[in-house]
Amino acid sequence: MEETIVIVGAGQAGGEVASSLRQQGYAGRVVLVGDEAHPPYQRPPLSKGFLLGKLQLAQLYLKPEAAYERAAITLRLGTRVDAIDRAARDVVLHDGSRLRYDRLVLATGGRARRLSVPGTDQGRLENLFYLRSIADVGAMRAHLVAGRHLVLIGAGYVGLEVAAAAVELGMKATVIDVAPRVLSRVTGPEVSAFIEGVHRERGVTLRLSATVREVAVDAAGRAAREVVVATGGVEERIAADVVLVGIGLVPNTELAAAAGLEVDDGIVVDERARTSDEAVLAAGDCASQPSAYAGRRIRLESVPNAMEHARVAAATLLGKPAPPPVVPWFWSEQFGMRLQMVGLSTGHDRCVVRGSMEKRSFSAFYLAGGRLIAADVIGRPADFMASRKLVAARPVIDPAALADEGVPLASLGA
Question: The Reductase C-terminal domain covers which part of the protein (predicted)?
């Protein structure tokens, strides 16, 4: 019988596994199952261009549906998988039917972490949103009206990107975070302060080191009216027309756990994306993978990682060598400014800045024990490309040379 590879999750990782299999000559049956009605699409524009109406729905799609048909990739969209029967090698669909697999790839991604405070336990509020899907944007758009006040809970990528979009739409925006600085999980204090300054200049109000105590709702219990925060023991009630919660992502590991696969902050895989079952692989946001760069197991939430990890899974399924590992990298756009990041700055003991923060053209390099471990780059794409190579090598670099724009980055670490 023809071999069947079933991919559960039609996001960017799942779509890339399917496409890579065909591009590399796989001749068996490929079935891509997704619970959304859409084929694989880009998620980053959801909080930027698509939210602002600058991108149309079709422009989000990685490929038109016809391309999957031409590649003989079977799409099962709007279809939820309820269980995995590893003994029978079946996935059980929500309608009770079964789909046989010879090998299975879990690319189940993640879901927005829910806020759990008084007021949010009354069911869905008509003006409180999470942003993870096309449907989320569709539900939120009608509320984004000039002059209204948008309160964003969470000063990460989603919160800051949507705050920038809201200002462009003529709205007022207030960002709340329990951390003392913005982007605290992904950048150093210097870059956080710079990003905070850009937002304040554009009229965004920031409430940092602030704990959300309650979402106060209207008399009917259907809409949020205020967000109650406490800062340094002082309580403040912030009036809100719209509330967006962006406090992180929860990996979708329930299917794997129920099937008896090893799970630990993600579906545990080896360096070839294999789970504890030799017939099952996992890739993307849902997977906890060993990282030679980090020297430990990590779970990365990023499009580049989803795509690169998907290619590793495809190579494993085809019995081919895996692509060389890539240092983690990320990007964000706010107020027309692109922030590009490579590496993980956690644990750095020194930050060296090259360029001018005032001119919004600089690179911040993070050192640990004299070695370069990460970089944040704004307005300098050439610096970013050079930084990717340098961070991968983790060289010991003279900080003075790193800060000196007269010294080419490419010459360092040689």
Answer: 329-412
